[in-house]
UniProtKB/TrEMBL annotation:
Pfam families in the record: Aldedh
Residues of the Aldehyde dehydrogenase domain: 18-474
Enzyme class: oxidoreductase
Organism: Leisingera aquaemixtae
Active-site positions on this chain: E251
PANTHER family: ALDEHYDE DEHYDROGENASE-RELATED
Lineage start: Bacteria, Pseudomonadati, Pseudomonadota, Alphaproteobacteria, Rhodobacterales
GO molecular function, one term: betaine-aldehyde dehydrogenase (NAD+) activity
Family, similarity comment: Belongs to the aldehyde dehydrogenase family.
Keyword Transcription regulation belongs to the record: no
Protein name in the entry: Betaine-aldehyde dehydrogenase
Keywords: Metal-binding, NAD, Oxidation, Oxidoreductase, Potassium
Enzyme Commission code(s) on record: 1.2.1.8
Length: 485
């Protein structure tokens, strides 16, 4: 019998599902059991062409509609997503393995927030009037044209919406390629947008691996590329986009610092460290995986952390009582287990976890290492799994320098009851998305993105509008034109 997660077809183009079984088959594996639950096919060159030409053709009429008309469709799509939250969350759980307890509150709901927020902004995208004596300049905020979105596998619904909603609000069209690991959820986003009244051709989803992504990025009809992925992929995609002088947004990886001072509320700091390391089984780009703890509270912090981590419920992700799911794939599990072995070999002290869980599926126990030093592999490389490194520090000055000593700069957090110190420290941290006495909040109203190797541009908030539109300026002369001859 066909699994309920099997989509009607692999691609969604020009307002309808499209299949082309000549493409490479992509198995969809449910991470909690290892069972194949669906198959999609990578886009053939014919499918890539169909998606790009349809998106190119549809965009101009969409940009001519008023922002209010465009926004109404996005807000309708948000309402449908909220009505279907349970069904979409179950699918997200099949796609990623993340527990339903999480997907019910963090995925379709976050996608709906983006559609609602950018739908609300669409009618207010105006230019300005600049007086120049009796002459004047006016500016117009215009769409970029045809945008490509390429997604990572940890938040397939959210990424499809975080890119699609601002792109469409500004009058662009989009071809979105989900990660080949989680190809299912973006198709539902496309289906819902069209059900809400989006004209055909404006939001298309095609499947495939890196080659399909590369074919999209290098196509001369494409005006903008927004990638969520790793730093190595980001470097390739950014270079390819630059060759065609395209706009980019790069949402990439991180190895973010979370700094806990002696005066912090220990219970809150432990909660922040758990949210910043074990949510989505550690598969979150902004995770604060280098937890710097001031020596005075180190042992108290570790004891409470081990106790609370021991309360994680590993199990069937579709059971709402489960609070901790598997790694997305067997490969990702093996990468994470490899890092855990490295941590042990390099002399970090294992506080809890440290191995594959004894159950079916790709589960790795939530793992905490203490006495981690800055040079250890687990403190330098992005693991993208449930492995927390706890490092000691003495002074504020020292911890700021060590926190910044990385190529990455996505996020950073500080826990302290001294608010002058909190702002002083955050002000010196090289990171794009920061937290004080909290960790990993990502509301649509706040800009999200990194500095240094972690990325270029911002998603969410009014900032995202700047990255999906451009400004035309028009000088208007009211008098005669003077010329030299
Ligand atoms: N900053 C953020 O917002 C954010 C959010 C989620 C994940 N991430 C990062 O994503 C990474 C994990 O996701 P992943 O393993 O799917 O990343 P990845 O870099 O392997 O792949 C990302 C996407 O890029 C595509 N791709 C690969 N090569 C390409 C090429 N040459 N041209 C065009 N597209 C290409 C892949 O098919 C996939 O869809 C982590 O590093 C994580 O930190 C960042
Ligand atoms: N909820 C924000 C997740 C973004 C990165 O993985």
């Amino acid at each position: 019998m066909t699994h309920p997660a099997q989509p009607k077809a692999s691609h969604f183009i020009n307002g309808a599902y499209v299949e082309d079984t000549a493409g490479t088959p992509i198995p969809v594996i449910y991470a909690a059991t290892g069972e194949q639950i669906a198959t999609v096919y990578a886009a053939t060159p014919a499918i890539v062409e169909q998606a790009l030409s349809t998106a190119k053709a549809a965009q101009k009429a969409w940009a001519k509609m008023t922002g209010t008309e465009r926004g109404r469709i996005l807000r309708r799509a948000a309402d449908i997503m909220r009505e279907r939250n349970h069904e979409l969350s179950v699918l997200e759980t099949y796609d990623t393995g993340k527990p339903l307890q999480e997907t019910l509150v963090a995925d379709a709901t976050s996608g709906a927030d983006a559609l609602e927020y950018f739908g609300g902004l669409a009618g207010s995208l105006t230019g300005e009037h600049i007086p120049m004596g009796e002459d004047w300049v006016y500016t117009v905020r215009e769409a970029l044209g045809l945008c490509v979105g390429i997604g990572a596998w940890n938040y397939p619904t959210q990424i499809a919406c975080w890119k699609g909603a601002p792109a469409l609000a500004c009058g662009n069209s989009m071809v979105f390629k989900p990660s080949e690991t989680t190809p299912l959820c973006a198709l539902k986003v496309a289906e819902i947008l069209h059900e809400a009244g989006l004209p055909a051709g404006l939001y298309n989803v095609i499947q495939g691996m890196g080659e399909v992504g590369a074919a999209l990025v290098t196509d001369p009809r494409v005006d903008k590329v927004s990638l969520t992925g790793s730093v190595p992929t980001g470097k390739k995609v950014y270079a390819a986009a630059a060759a065609g002088m395209k706009h980019v947004t790069m949402e990439l990886g991180g190895k973010s610092p979370l700094i806990i001072f002696d005066d912090a509320d220990v219970e809150n700091a432990v909660g922040g460290a758990i949210n910043g390391n074990f949510y989505s089984s550690g598969q979150v780009c902004s995770n604060g995986t280098r937890v710097f703890v001031q020596k005075g509270i180190k042992e108290k912090f570790l004891a409470r952390l081990a106790e609370r981590t021991g309360a994680a419920v590993l199990g069937d992700p579709q059971d709402e009582a489960t609070s901790f799911g598997p790694m997305v794939t067997e490969n990702q599990m093996n990468i994470v287990l490899g890092y855990i072995e490295k941590g042990k070999e390099e002399g970090a002290r294992l506080i809890c976890g440290g191995k594959r869980a004894d159950m079916p599926g790709f589960f790795v126990e939530p793992t905490v290492f203490a006495d981690v030093t800055d040079d250890m592999t687990i403190a330098r490389e992005e693991i993208f799994g449930p492995v927390m490194s706890v490092l000691d520090f003495d002074t504020e000055e020292e911890v700021i320098a060590r926190a910044n000593d990385t190529e990455f700069g996505l996020s950073a957090g500080v826990f302290t009851n001294d608010f002058s110190r909190a702002h002083r420290v955050i002000g010196q941290l090289e990171a794009g998305s920061c937290f004080i006495n909290s960790y990993n909040d990502a509301p649509v109203e706040a800009p999200f993105g990194g500095v240094k190797a972690s990325g270029v541009g911002r998603e969410n908030s009014k900032e995202a509008i700047k990255h999906f539109s451009q400004v035309k300026s028009v000088y208007v002369r009211m008098g005669d034109v003077e010329a030299a001859f």
